[in-house]
Structure formats: structure tokens, C-alpha cells
Design goal:
The complex is a heterodimer. By secondary structure, chain A is α/β, with parallel strands linked by helices. By secondary structure, chain B is an alpha/beta fold. The N and C termini of chain B lie far apart (about 70 Å). The chains are: A alpha/beta, B alpha/beta.
Amino acid sequence: MPGNAVLTQTNEQRESLDSVVVRFAGDSGDGIQLTGGRFTDETAVAGNDLVTFPDFPAEIRAPIGTTYGVSAFQIQFGSNVVKTSGDSPDVLVCMNPAALKVNLEDLKVGGVIISDIGTFNDKNIEKAGFAENPLEGSFLDAYRRIDIDISKLTLESVKDSGVNKRDGQRCKNMWTLGLVSWMYDRDIEPTVQWLESKFKNLPEIAKANISALKAGHAFGETAELPAALPVFTVGSAEFKPGEYRTVTGTEALAWGLTVGSNLANLKLLLASYPITPASSLLHVLSGLKEYNVSTFQAEDEIAAVCAAIGASYGGAMGITSSSGPGVALKTEALGLAIAAELPLILVNSQRAGPSTGMPTKTEQSDLYLAVYGRNADAPLVVLAPQSSADCFDIGVSAVKIATQFMTPVMVLSDTYLVNAAEPWLLPDVNEIEPFPVSFRTDPEGFQPFLRDPKTGARPWVKPGTPGLMHRIGGLERASESGNVSYDPANHQNMTDARREKVQGISNFLPKQEIDSGANKGKVVVVGWGSTYGPISQAVGRAINQGHAVSHIHLRNIWPLPSNLGELFSGFEKVLVPELNAGQLLTVLRAEYLVNANGLNKVAGQPFRVSEIESAIISMVEEKNE
Amino acid sequence: MNNTATATEFTAQDFTSDQEIRWCPGCGDYAIVKGVRKALAEIGTPPEKVAFVSGIGCAARFPYYMSTYGFHTIHGRAPTFATGLKLANPELDVWVVGGDGDMLSIGGNHTFHVMRRNVDVNLLLFNNEIYGLTKGQYSPTSEEGTKSPSTPFGSVDHPVSPVSFALGVGGRFVARAYDIGQKTLPEVLKRAHSHKGASFVEILQNCHVYNDGTFEEVRDKGSINNQLICSHGEPLIYGKDRDRGIILNREKLALETVILGQNGIEEKDILIHDEKNYNLAVMLGDLRPPNGPMAFGVIYADPTESYDSAVIAQENELKKKAGEPDLNNLLRRGHTWMVE
């Protein structure tokens, strides 16, 4: 039991590990996300590679102590390349019984549970749904336990800072961060500075938080801990030299869209309506006015997309952002942008559905909506970032494609990418080739729908330009003149032209590459979007076991890469893991008549590496019929 | 010599496109397009600096017939496209055209917010109290009891008055005109244009196919005794012989119609129109026979800063403070570290 053995461990005694998965869990009011964020920063500074997975409830402050109010933050960090936030935690930090109840099944057998026993009273134990105190008896015998009265120790540590009991209790997360930082040999000084700056107008609160942080750290260093307490060193990862930061998908996408619009020499106008988990893009962009970014919080989803189209019509880069239910509302307007052939970017941060579904949980189930989800034959471009850092490149590409081809582009992000952070080797923006838009100004031979023979794009005219006044709209229009036309042959031609323009974009994009493995083999695993990390790691493991497996990861969902069919011909079998019921799967089967099989999961959680790995192995070992 | 001298060179023809008009013969829209072209010529903004944005419906075909920039969008959403357009391209004169179904039914929410925000666009609502393009169903402005293909036994729901709606949602410029009133219409449009912020003009329009004569008492020949033309600073006197007037019944807190010379009423008893008086505007907007005349002209005009100009002012302030933007700095905000 805790507190028996006196232990003073030095760095020399630390166990060295390649990678560790830690999950912090507690009430949604416990400051878990903030603790995770700070630990992420400390870990990045320590030189580890890392991937995080914040997982929180939709309720802002669910009733205290309930299982549905549990918020969690998982981080995997290591001395080698880390591609996922980890299948199962090595260490689970539980701030209350409910956190233990919800998260225990994910913990590795033999893993460490750090519990704040101060919260394990009868009321909380019952609320969590335990029949009896899980810390008593043999219930947790399969794990290594560290029971600490964090609540009490926190209050003791802040008693000189002058805060009341309530504010003192709120420093529990910093105490815990101090302890975990010590376990993994993290420097807490950056967090001290961060707290000083965050609470610079509330010096007592700053002092209390810093005291708690230091007390947690000192507890690990000096206090009586069971010999079982593992302390670790995780060596620095091998990074390419350069300047790094940690970045979430939201930040990277916001910056990519901003950089893209600047490279196109356009004002960016984001029109959006708040929705989980997409709102953070509106928040980030609304702070970037000095980069020629305007934001407009519209009255509803439809108003948002229409204002973005209006902005593009006016000569700006119109962007709108939402999640599944909001994107559904925008579909009529997308049809107009397709018909009027105007640039537009729609960022869809997918979440679990249908309908309201599980707003804070991740899913990839809007691929059909993106590719097919409009009335009539209405093609647009669909891109999907594969990691948080990749959101930057996708943001820049979306602007380039939308403006050079006069087409709407949908970016399929998801809840996971929105929130997950990873280290990012910062690019030099000056090295990205600019792609300034040249608006049509010459009245000579001007026709609003006369296409560029190379790209199929119609000219973009900024209203206000003399001599080029014209009318556009949703009624079918004559090719070239753009005048309203009900001519049967013209409608056929225009439908074909719209499709060919979008299909032709694949000729301007880089050819699809095989991410890992050979270009011939038994199984090719085809993924898209945020599942890159687990698929890549699972394929890597299968290859290490000697299997002829390769990984293709699609970032261009529509049009599909021009060489994809050719790549498929090198493999006997195709496995398509997706966080949906099989959407890319049927698209690939339809487009390539390929005998692909799905690995499908809709649990609101990312794939585990092991899930994909076992699907690969069973496919490899399956006898051909 | 100045720019206004050259600006006045435009004629209605300069705002007429080469497209053949496809409204039903005899439609009130013909008169409206004529009035709008005349007003634009008098306003004098060059056609390339003017954009018409519309939704769906008979009225929404309007942009095709103007030789300006034009965008025929989707049902009910024209005010939102216009908002985006104005934010991207604030130098344009933006006009929004729609019918009663477009702007008060499917698009009521957007009509509300564009006025609440006070975006500097001119909204023209052609009110014919019926759905024309879908062949005659009743609309949110149809009189109670309207028999239509979808209400064969008469509608039972209550209509909204566009002017009252506009005042209720915070419109700072609210006016009314009618299609064939070619004296009032261009004048009201010119005022709407010069107003900075959202300006709202209800234009009564006769649909002689599906709802002929719905405005007979206030629009047609012989209706002059029911037309109250409001003029700022002038007494609210009307009628063929200018012998009718509006007074305030202080007990009922309501407007009342009186005859000059009867019951001792003199001109000095008549209310003076004050277009900045919101409460008066609300009461004037509600008048309609048999409860009084119908008010035309500028019913309410009390400008305040427009949304677009406030947005641009805020952005310029921030840009000035931030200095020359550097995209590399953007990516390096917050904590970064070097790997050797």
C-alpha cells in the first residue's frame, strides 16, 4: 500500500523506454485538457516525438462524478517516430472513480493506475457505478497501483497562497502534472512561466497553481512512494534538423488557408456558424485580421456558405466551415457554386452521426456526402489531410485548386485531427511557389463561360471591372455566353464539361505514391484521412513480420489519383480500413472494379494499431478461393 | 466640373441588358424594372460598380434584365450572398431583389439578419401577396382567407406586413412604393441608395395572373384617397383634395384619420412626419384600408454605422497596429524549438 516504502530514485535508476502512452482522465471540470496540453509542451521540449488524443464529452460541465462527464487526454511519446496516440495506455491517471470506470478497460494489463483517493468516497463510487470501492479488494490486482490523496495534498500545498478552498481544489490538475512530469523527467519550468503569464492579473491563482505543480513534482522526488512506482527516461527522438512546434489540425489548417490565400493574393473571408467540433477554425481565423483575413459569424449554416460564395463572387477567397449536420444544410448552395463555377472551400470537420450523433467523437462518415451528396450531377474536389501537420499543406492546396480551376473544394478533416497535436517541422513560407490569381479585365473576346482550354476553368471577373458586366446564376447557362439556356444539347455539354473539369484536376496533382512497402505484393491497405498513423504503423509491423503488405494513403479523394488503378494491379487483395461503414470501399469498388474488403469501425474512437494489424494478418493468411 | 457632372450622363438605357424580359405580359414587374433603371440613371453610379443579387421567384429574374453585374442565386438566400459580396467588395452598390415568398418565407431569417446587422445593401421586396412562379399558392403576406391551389377553402393563417417586419427587426431605413407609382418609386429608390446601411423598400406589385387587384384600393386608378405619401417635416395630409390627415389619438395611442375642416380639425392639428421617429413609423406601417390610408414614401430613416464599414474599420485598425504581416511569423507564434 502507498506510503510504506521510502524511495529516492535518481535519474540513473530510471528505466529507459522507447515509447510510453499516458492517459489523464477526470471530470470535465478538472482541467484535464489543459493538463494534457501542458504535458505535451513539456514533452515536445524534451525532444520526444508525440501524438495526442483529446477525448471529451459534449456537455460543457456534466454533473460532477458521472461517467458521461469524464474527459480524457491521451499522449504517446517516444524516442522513435510516433504515429498514433497509442492503442492502450501504460499509465492511467484517474482524478475520480468515474474516470477509472470509463478508462480501465483500455489500460494495459500490468499498467500503472494513479488515483486521487481523496475523491473515492461512497457518493462518487456509487455515481461511477461501482458496487464497492474498486481500490479495495482484488479488483485491480492486474495493475500497478499508486494511491495518493491528491485532493488533500493539493490543498496543503496551496495554503500559503491566499486562495479559497474552491480555487485551491482546482489546482489538483497542476499537482498531478507535477507528479507525472517527475515520473518522466520533464522540466516543469516552462509550465511555471506559462502559469505566470496566464494568470498575470490573478497573482494568487498563479501562485497557488505553481505551488501545487511544484509540490506534485517534489512529492515524486522526495516522498514515500512504493518501489513499484515506475520512473522512466524516454530518449530524444531523431528529428530532422530545423525549427519545430506542436500543432493541432485546426491551427495547421487555419494557417494553411491563410498562407494559401496570401499566395493567391486574395483576401480570405471565412463565413461560418458555430458547431462542434468545427468552431475552433472560426476562432483561430478570427484572430488573424492582419493577414488579410476576414471572418463572418453568420446567422445559420446556409447563410455561412452563401456569404462565402458571395465573397468569392466579389473576388475574395470565400471559405466556410462546419461539421456533418451543417454541411448537409449547405448542399443546395454547393450546387450553386458548382453551377456558377466559383471558387469555394468548405472545411468539414467530421463527427460521429447521423443527425446530432456524438458531436465530440471522431468518425469518417461524410465521404459519401462529400463525393456524392448533392442533387443532380454536381462534382467538386474532395481533399483529406492525413495528420495534424498535413492540414497545412492541404489548406494551401485547397486554395490553389479552388482558384485555378474555379471550383468548390471540400476538405474532410475530423474531430481527431481538429484536436490532436503533433510536432511539426516548420516550413519556410518563402519557399512555396506563389500562385497569384489573375482576374479577367480585358473586355476583348470576353465570354463569362468560355473555358481555359488547359484547365477547363472559366474566367474570374471581379464585379467593379469596367466593360465585363455579366449575369450568372443557378439556371443552366449556355456554354461560353453564360446566358440562360434550356437547350438539350447545351445541358449535356455543360454537364460533361463540369465533370471533365473536376476529373481533369487529377492530371495536375502529384501521382499517388505507395507510403510503405513494395509496389507489388499480397495485400495493399488503402486508407484516407486521419487513420494514417495507425494504418502506417500496422503495415510497418506486418512488413517486419515478413508479409508482402503495402500502404497507400489517399489525400485526394475526388478526383482520385490518375494512377491509382495501375497501383492496385500490383496486389492480390485490397483492405480499406475506415471509421465508417464502408464508404471509400464502395467508391473504390465502383471506380476500379477491384475486390476490396473493408475494416470498419464506428465507435467514436480512432483505430488501434492492433485492430488493423490483425485484419492485415488474417487477410494475408486467408486462402485464395 | 466634378464627378457628379459626368455621372448624370447615364440614361435608363445604360442599365438595360440585351436579354428579353420573360415576365407575363401586364406584370407589375415591368413597371418596377423601368423605375429602377430610371433611378439608377439618376443616381449615376457606373453600371460596372453596381451588382444585383436575387433569390428565386418571378422577382428574382430581375438581375438578367439589368446591364450591371448580377447574381441569380438560390431561394431565400440573396441577402447572405449580398453580405459576402459587400464584405469582399465594399465599393460596390449592392441591390437585393426578391418577392414576398423569397424574402419573408424561406428567406425570412436572412432578411431579418441583414437588417439587424445593418449591411449596406438595398433590399427591394416585390410584394404581390402570392406565389407566382410556382403557380399561385398563398404566401406569408396573403390576406387571411386567400383561396389558392394549396388552400382551396381559404387560408387560415395570419399575414405579415413587410414594413412592420422590417421595423421590428431593426431596419434603419424602411420605405414603401408601388409598381406603377412612377413618381414615388424612383425617389424612394434614390433615398434608399443614399442611405448608408441596410435599406428596405416594399414595392407593391400586382400579379394579374394569380392575384389580380389585391392592392386595388391603394394602387389602382381612383385610389388616391387611400394613398398617404410620407414626406419628412411635412404634415401627414393626403387625398385628392388634400383634405384628409392623420392625427394621434392620445388615449388609444393610435393614429386616426380625420377630415380637415370637420369637427374643428385644422392643419395645425395634423401630425408632422418625422422619419426618425420609430414609434410613428411603426404606426404608419400598420395602416391599411379600411383602417386608414396606406403609407408610401420613406416611413423611417435613422442611419447608424453599417456592419461592413465597422468591420473594415476594425480590420484596418488591427492591420495598422500589427504592421507588415510576415507569414513565417504566423507559423512561429507561441513556443517553437530548434533541433540541431
